[in-house]
Design goal:
heterodimer, A: alpha/beta, two-stranded antiparallel ribbon, 32% helix, B: 78 residues
Chain lengths: 413, 78
């Protein structure tokens, strides 16, 4: 049997409504600077007025006609991650690298525009590239082509748990020797007319607050829904042996992954399923609950979702929860759905690197009934060694990741 | 250079992000990065832009001149 490999993070790349990483991304997340703004009014006007969206041009390196926005975002974030890892233009390290990409909605713009052409404009044909641009693995395929990655190429579509599962499954693949190095993360670009209508119909979205940037308020007593976001985040994961062998800077160790399904309801979460995934991640990392220093919660800002997550945390962490900071950064970057797990793990790792816990911004009336320390409104400086990130998806899928400071820790298994 | 040729060259330069000055009738589509699928996509965009519909039975174009001839013929025929 192959010896189990420790898995480390050597690069992080983010393209988000609050900036890019490397760049000002964490400097905006830490003080709670929100990227939630009014959406441009299209024709016809969409029923959703606010979102966390990116108004800067996306530098995806494309020449000529750009791919779908979800692919553009993935390309840009991946390039940042590969560059930070020192892998760009090193074909000797890139060739055998794999890709695990999570996306909930995939190429929404391509699909939306195709249907508008047929149903709205009453045209009788679609552009030949509609299908290749729009298939769910288009982004992962484009990444492989662009960077020359010939290893595993998997796309995970598990709603809000897509990218956390993509990362978790990459952890397993590297740990067990199937891959040495994987670019893992997610991309989401679903702020299109049709998809916005679908979300509006679900009655899960927060209405615009008087202060628009404060419309998403996880763990606050006056929380009233989630705010959609767009963006992409990728991590370079590799075996410790591989990272050391090429002299890479190790940002963190990816120590544990747990996954489960509630198997109860298509949208309403169930604590038992979440508890199972969290405990599995702890067990996978070989850790007791009281070793966790910070949790980046799923915390979408819906009344029911936040309450169930808090219940799950009380069950798993018990008395330790009183000393365990738990924040939801969706208040600033919005709900990136299929890219949410990746961007939130990135934040948790950056928090560990910088010794700064980002707050639950706009949590102006902390809901004391939840029984958690939600780091309301203001960041906190605190040394962190072990962090956990929750992602709980529509469909009942739960995915939990644990990262640790690399230095000094013994192997987890 | 007539209006049709001008429009066609503009489209090629813009969509392929290549210098317009380098495009001639003899430039092959392969030279400017259009493989068979990309050529089909580009011909579709020409149809949209010029509001024409090519016959699907003709030989696929090899050069920019071939494309231009097909567009011109279609515009004159329609």
């Amino acid at each position: 049997m192959t010896e189990l490999q420790r898995v480390v993070v050597t690069g992080i790349g983010v393209v988000s409504p609050v900036g890019n990483w490397p760049g000002p991304f964490f400097d905006n997340v830490a003080p709670g600077n929100s990227g939630i703004r009014r959406l441009p009014v299209g024709e016809p006007a969409a029923p959703v007025q606010i979102a966390a969206w990116i108004d800067a041009p996306i530098d995806d390196g494309s020449k000529g006609a750009p791919p779908d926005r979800v692919t553009q975002l993935a390309l840009a974030a991946s390039r940042y991650a590969l560059a930070e890892a020192g892998l760009l233009d090193h074909s000797e390290w890139l060739t055998e690298m794999g890709i695990h990409l999570g996306t909930g909605s995939g190429a929404s713009a391509t699909t939306d525009q195709a249907f508008y052409r047929l149903y709205g404009e009453k045209r009788d044909r679609l552009a030949p590239m509609t299908l290749p641009r729009g298939i769910n693995n288009a982004a992962a395929s484009e990444l492989a082509i662009r960077f020359g990655l010939t290893g595993v190429n998997n796309t995970y579509s598990i709603a809000c748990a897509s990218s956390s599962s993509a990362i978790g499954e990459a952890l397993r693949a590297i740990r067990h020797g199937y891959s040495e190095r994987i670019l893992a993360g997610g991309s989401e670009a679903l702020l299109t007319y049709g998809i916005l209508h679908a979300w509006d119909a679900l009655h899960a979205l927060a209405p615009p607050d008087a202060h628009v940037e404060a419309s998403c308020r996880p763990f606050s007593s006056d929380r009233n829904g989630l705010v959609l976001g767009e963006g992409a985040a990728f991590l370079v994961l590799e075996s410790l042996t591989s990272a050391k062998g090429r002299g890479a800077t190790i940002l963190a160790e990816l120590a544990g992954y747990g996954t489960s399904c509630d198997a109860t309801h298509i949208t309403h979460p169930t604590s038992a399923g979440q508890v199972k995934a969290i405990r599995q991640a702890l067990s996978d990392a070989g850790l007791e609950p009281d070793i966790i220093d910070y949790i980046n919660a799923h915390g979408t800002g819906t009344p029911a979702g936040d309450a169930v997550e808090a219940q799950s945390l009380r069950t798993v962490f018990g008395e330790h929860l009183s000393a365990l900071p738990v924040s939801s950064t969706k208040a600033v970057h919005g709900h990136l759905l299929g890219a949410g797990g990746a961007i939130e793990l990135a934040i948790a790792i950056l928090a560990m690197q910088k010794g700064v816990i980002p707050p639950t911004a706009h949590c102006r009336i902390p809901d004391s009934s939840l029984g958690i320390d939600m780091v309301a409104e203001r960041m906190r400086q605190q040394a962190l060694d072990t962090v956990l990130s929750n992602s709980f998806a529509f469909g009942g899928s739960n995915s939990v990741l644990i990262a640790r400071r690399y230095e000094g820790h013994p192997t987890c298994f | 250079m007539n209006d049709t040729e001008n429009r066609l060259y503009d489209m090629l330069a813009q969509q392929l992000a290549i210098p317009r000055e380098g495009i001639t009738r003899d430039t092959t589509l392969e030279q400017i990065g259009l493989d068979s699928l990309a050529t089909i996509e580009f011909m579709f965009q020409i149809e949209d832009s010029f509001d024409i519909r090519f016959d699907q039975t003709g030989a696929p174009p090899i050069t920019v001149g071939d494309v231009l001839d097909q567009v011109t013929a279609k515009l004159e025929h329609d």
